[in-house]
Amino acid sequence: MKNIYKIIKISRPLYKILFVITLLIVGSAILDLSTPLVSKAIVDDIVAQTSASKNGNLQMLISLVILMFGLNLLGIIVSGLSDRLGDHFAGEQRRLLTEKFYNKVLALPQAYFDSEISGKIINQLNRGIFTIQNFANAATNFIIPAFLQSIFTVIILARYSPVIALLVFVLFPIYLVLSYYSSLRWGREEERKNKREDQLRGRISEVIGNIKIVKAFLTEKPEFNFVSDKLADINRIYAGQSATYHRIDFARNFSLIVILLGINILVFYQTFTKSMSIGVMVLIIQLVLQARRPLFAMSFILTQLQNAESGSKEFFEVLEIPDSEATVSEKRLKKFTQPGLTFENISFNYQDSGKILDRVSFSIKPLEKIALVGHSGAGKTTITNLILKLYNPTKGEIFLGDNSYREMSTEEVRQNVALVFQDNELFSTSVRTNVAYGAKATEKEIWAALKAANAEEFVKQLPKGLDAEIGERGVKLSGGQKQRIQIARAILKEAPILILDEATSSLDAKSEIEVQEALNKLMADKLVIIIAHRFSTLQNVDRMMVINDGRITQSGTPRELAQQPGIYADLLKYQIEGNKKLLEGFELT
Fold first, then answer.
1. CA torsion, points 212, 481, 536, 588, in degrees to nearest 10?
2. CATH code, domain carrying 182
3. What percent of the chain is modeled with pLDDT above 90?
């Protein structure tokens, strides 16, 4: 039950609320048990009046009835207060758990997201919160009340009949053992079910995110069958859980009716022989009936315990992943002014991969524009990932100006780097929110950035201008428009280093010209690193670095490398020949 302990520990900020709820529950349990005691007194008074002596007390009877009404009313009030505070506790706990999980996810290394599906992460969050909340509700509504009622009931029964108290007490370990075995089996199967549930939710998330591919390749039926098969598998596991539960539940209930039969025989016999008063008989019957409530709750309680144990497993596993992006020092650096960038003998490999970079060394001067060229998989994007400190080098050291990356926090590094991606990394919110993302900008500054990015004209034509919703990943905009929104965002950041990762690769010729004009404005007064395959976007860089098999094999100006044998010259040749064939095909040469 290590995860149950973690649930209790993580809820430490809510202990005060939980303490008040516990006090209310204790009061409610006492009030519940006071009703049978008052009932006994009422029955005894009625029996005394109906007996031959007729020594009943009408005034006492009226007082007892009023007392019972008052106790019931007070019980309703206490129960209502407890439930209301329980709802407040549930809301605060949901907020606490979500904030802890989301804060942790935001601080996790990029490597974690490389190996996990977003739908799975969200499902783990939802399941963790759901099961923990159910456990908390069970604790406040069932576990604590059941425990207190069990103790109080046995104590009161022992006062009137030690034998019956013992019989009732024996029921609890029987129920506890059978319920524990049932919940243990349930919990093991629940973990199997959770794994399939994660696969299912992750796949659904991927399919929705790539719905165009699904439709284009006519794979709706296979995708549906995948989900259907997983659901059937989950149902098979659940059917096994249900069968086990009901078999054990029969054994529990059989033991209950056998012992209750013994209690009833004993109570009725003692009352018939007048060794027990009718009032005591009523009291015992009511107490035994109340004792059934915690017994019936026990199975539910243990099931909730096992569900919380298994359902929160991945939740806590995420919380326990070491932070790789924690601040290294409390020293905060301002944005650099015209910094240089240096790689010294950098080697790197991803988890479960071979070496991607092998002793790479280079220096980029302030305001220099360089291009990274090479075949796909050569290590170009890995270099930009290291510059962003999304990963740390396996060996070697990176310097921003004179400052080592090892001594800088991720925040200090990334506040000096702006990016324009190949993919249109936009949010499904407004143009305003996307452009000003990560920056505190006025409307005037946003429009200025849009103008510099050649985006002002089309944004003004949108139905709501800056407040126009652009859809998921900017689906309502064209490729060129989305890229220019990204450029405007990078302009607002005013970072001294700019990374362009295939920023024009997916654009048509007209859009490329418009975006390139915006990029030229953005690149002014910055150190720029460009990854591109279209050599038209590389002709104005100061220097090119050719990467092959994780090493820099060539370095020089575009003109110098074009005249040297090597990868760049070959790629340039292929592109020129392809363009010639295209022109010849249209008889334009």
1. 80
2. 1.20.1560.10
3. 7
Position 298 scores a pLDDT of: 66
Q: Is 528 helix (H, G, I), strand (E, B) or coil?
A: strand
In-domain check, residue 492: no
Q: What is the pLDDT of residues 384-421, one digit of tens each?
A: 889 988 888 989 999 998 889 988 888 888 889 888 87
The single-letter code of the amino acid at 43 is V
137 is a domain residue? yes
pLDDT (average), residues 303-314 = 73
Whole-angstrom CA distances from 544 to 198, 382, 530 are 45, 17, 9
Domain assignment present for residue 443? The answer is: no
Q: In this predicted structure, what is the pLDDT of residue 580? A: 64
Nearest by Cα to 363 from 543, 530, 520, 496: 543
Q: How many domains does the chain have?
A: 1
Which domain range does residue 22 map to? 2-319
418's enclosing H/E stretch is strand 417-420
For the chain, the straight-line distance linking the first and the last C-alpha, in angstroms and rounded, comes to 78
Residue 338 lies in a domain: no
Packed helices 118-138 and 162-209: angle between N→C axes, nearest 10 degrees: 160
User: What secondary structure does DSSP assign to 285-337, as a single string?
Assistant: HHHHHHHHHHHHHHHHHHHHHHHHHHHTHHHHHHHTSPPSSS-S-S--PPPPS
* Residue in 464, 269, 578 with CA at minimum distance from that of residue 570: 578
205-209, 321-325, 397-401: which range is least confident on average? 321-325
- Tell if the pTM clears 0.85, that is, is over it: no
Residue 252 in contact with residue 303, Cβ under 8 Å? no
Question: What is the distance, to the nearest Å, from the Cα of residue 493 to the centroid of all Cα atoms in its chain?
Answer: 29
CA atoms of 582 and 580, how far apart (whole Å)? 5
- Per-residue pLDDT at 141 exceeds 70: no
Whether residue 61 contacts residue 42, with contact meaning beta carbons closer than 8 Å, is answered with: yes
